[in-house]
Amino acid sequence: MSFIKSTFRHPRLPVNDLGLTYRDYEGALSTLCAGCGHDSITSAIIQACHELSIQPSEVAKLSGIGCSSKAPNYFLNKAHGFNSVHGRMPSVATGANLANQDLLYLAMSGDGDSASIGFGQFAHVVRRQLNMVYMVANNGVYGLTKGQLAATADKGVKNKAGDLSLFTDIDLCVMALQLGASFVARSFSGDKQQLVPLLKAAMSHKGFAFIDIVSPCVTFNNHSGSTRSYDYVHDHITTAAVTDFVPVKKEITSSCDSGESEDVCLHDGSIMRIKKLQTDYDCSNASQAIVDIEKHKKAGDILTGLFYLEPTASDFHEINDTNDMPLNKLTQDSLCPGSRVLTGINDSFR
User: Fold this and answer.
1) Of 92, 138, 164, 308, whose CB neighbour count within 10 A is largest?
2) Measured on CA atoms in the order 238, 243, 248, 251, is the torsion positive or negative?
3) 187: nearest Cα among 212, 153, 169, 210
4) pTM, entire model
């Protein structure tokens, strides 16, 4: 079965400074599970780009492999895009950024793509301070391959198959802070009131901007110990087995004031506690941000908000004193200046 997105445009849709509507920033129809938090992230990105009046053709969207890495296909269909291999998106982003630093680089990754196979590449793209927005749609499982536990899963939790997470989780926000990211934040896919402003700030930031977005998986966030899981309910209604059943679920949303906590009920009946930072939180202290993240994690809370911002940060091009002009705009004279220039360079090494 194929799906074709409607081309209908309401004549009274609001337009931005470029004369573009919200629909002009959309992409293809999503093939993710109904109610997936990743689609909420897509919606937030579309809204942020529309409100900032970003020209879609001046954006490069990149991804690796996973449910999250499918998401760029669902926003900014007129932007440049590259879907790379598992865990190698940072290399592609670095090469593209070196070739043309005039584009806005939006990178979408997942917990498996960044915290497991791509962990080494994630570390180096942070420390090199590439000018980009790096988003991780974090659900703690490999949703594309039947829900295996990811490296970001909390120690002691179980996945749908009942496998226990035996190891300490990798907190990508803590890693980004330790490695020198100049913008670090965490949000929840269901809280657009918080997520959209964070995305807009990250897109306007010069330097490496990292946002970890908690995005519960509607298919694999339940487990065998839950009395409200899909399997449990099905087993108590009929004797037939459940095989890869993906129920249609309502999008999980959340909204609480700064400094307050909210218990979010997931589709399996389990509770996730979200706590927002105070509005007067000091986001200039990276060390304190790490302490606060870990303190709330021990209390069972997921701390969200802008953890750290370095407004005067340098990016990769400033540090390496690279050419400002995109490679595709360099003339033949610039690329091949002649034997006289080459002789001068060789003489400088003698």
Assistant:
1) 138
2) positive
3) 212
4) 0.81
Q: Enumerate domains of the chain plus CATH numbers.
A: 22-320 (3.40.50.970)
322 DSSP 8-state letter: -
Q: DSSP for 216-260, please give it.
A: --TTTS--TT-TTSHHHHHHTT-SS---S-----PPP-----TT-
Beta pairing partners, 148: 142
More confident of the two residues 261 and 291: 291
pLDDT at residue 207 is higher than 90: yes
156 falls in which pLDDT band (50, 70, 90)? confident
How far CA 204 is from CA of 193, 231, 234, 301, in Å, comes to 18, 45, 48, 29
Residue 324's pLDDT is 83
> CA 34 to CA 319: how far, in whole Å?
44
CA angle 103, 105, 107 (to 5 degrees): 160
